[in-house]
Write a structure and sequence with these properties.
- Among the domains are: 144 residues, no CATH class; 85 residues, Pdz3 Domain (Roll).
- The protein has nine helices and ten strands.
- The strands form four sheets. The protein has a four-stranded antiparallel β-sheet with strand order 5-4-6-7, with helices on one face. Strands 1-2 form a two-stranded antiparallel ribbon. The protein has a two-stranded antiparallel ribbon with strand order 3-10.
- Strand 8 and strand 9 form a beta hairpin.
- It starts with a helix and ends with a helix.
């Protein structure tokens, strides 16, 4: 059951991404050759107003075929005959829809379980926060240059900045205070900590559900960017990357561990994973790499500046190389995922 849920979650997120491309293409009067749900051979298809709508045998994502990789035709509605800004809006719509979906899921989850306001419940004796005079009830608003909106950001900041002194700004009784802390090694856990405990989750109303739902999406976007930065700088290894197989395994494990607690807990856990995946897919697709939406946006931005399109065959070669490299990366990531499962 967990595997089926993983496939459904991942497929819906990819489908929603492609739906963004499709709706903006239609909005800009661009011909869409096919809009498909799933991949592989078609098991059902129907043509309506020049677009083939199909359901394919593999329930994994979908696609929106607009002829963007082809030479411009005589049709005024061909993708490549539209203005550069129209094409930019169509390409950017996929990642933007991922962020919208993440926000919708996040608001629902926050309304269900509440939000983790960054309020200190307890300061641990012997750790920097206690020595600096912080108290229960203090609200942390900044760590270093990072604004803090959720308590989990305190923990993640600590994980991403191991061994570094940190300037912590907090509010007590309406007064803003700042202290500089040197995290202390927790021998039992094996990493350095400042020694604070969360006050738990606060019940959300409609306003705070939207507010903290947005904070949660921002948190996952920033976490993805921080992880990429650590990958580039070598702070984490490429062997820690995970792909579809790893995602399925995580969802299955989460389902198996939470199902004994009831449907509500399962739904909350799966929503949390869906938020992460949707925000992650939006960020990854905006990276300025060939074959990704971000790579296409780079070419469109160059075209907007120079007022002349880069020859399609040259752009096609670049994207082809990008696709090959992505396939190699996917094989590597899949190998890592399978190896971790059987280790």
């Amino acid at each position: 059951m967990g595997i089926i849920l993983a496939i459904l979650i991942f497929s819906f997120i990819v489908f929603f991404h492609e739906l963004g491309h499709f709706l903006l293409a239609k909005k800009n009067g661009i011909d869409v050759d096919e809009f498909a749900i799933g991949m592989g051979p078609a098991i059902y298809s129907r043509e309506y107003k020049g677009t083939k709508y199909s359901v394919r045998i593999l329930p994994i994502g979908g696609f929106c075929a607009m002829g963007e990789d082809e030479e411009a035709t005589d049709s005024p509605n061909n993708f490549n005959n539209k203005s550069v800004w129209a094409r930019i809006s169509v390409i950017a719509a996929g990642p933007v829809f991922n962020f919208i979906l993440a926000l919708v899921f996040s608001v629902i989850l926050t309304a269900m379980i509440g939000y983790d306001k960054p309020v200190v419940s307890e300061v641990e004796s012997g750790y920097p926060v206690a020595e600096a005079g912080m108290q229960a009830g203090d609200r942390i608003v900044r760590m270093g240059s990072k604004k803090i909106n959720l308590f989990r950001e305190v923990n993640f900041y600590n994980q991403f900045h191991q061994g570094e002194d940190v300037e912590v700004t907090f509010i007590r009784d309406g007064e803003k205070m700042t202290v500089t802390l040197t995290p202390k090694m927790d021998e039992e856990r094996g990493y350095t900590r400042i020694g604070v405990t969360s006050s738990g989750y606060f019940k959300a109303n409609p306003v705070t559900a939207v507010q903290y739902g947005a904070y949660q999406v921002k948190f996952w976007i920033c976490t993805t960017l921080d992880s990429l930065k650590m990958l580039i700088t070598g702070q984490i290894g490429a062997d820690q990357l995970s792909g579809p197989v790893g995602i399925v395994n995580v969802v299955d494990d989460t389902y198996q561990e939470s199902k004994s607690y009831g449907t509500f807990v399962v739904l909350a856990e799966l929503l949390n994973i869906a938020i992460l995946l949707s925000a992650n897919l939006g960020v990854m697709n905006l990276l300025p790499l060939p074959a990704l939406d971000g790579g296409r946006l780079v070419f469109l931005a160059v075209e907007a500046v120079r007022r002349k399109r880069i020859p399609p065959e040259k752009e096609g070669y670049v994207h082809l190389v990008g696709i090959v490299l992505l396939m190699v990366l996917m094989v590597f990531v899949m190998y890592n995922d399978i190896r971790r499962i059987f280790m």
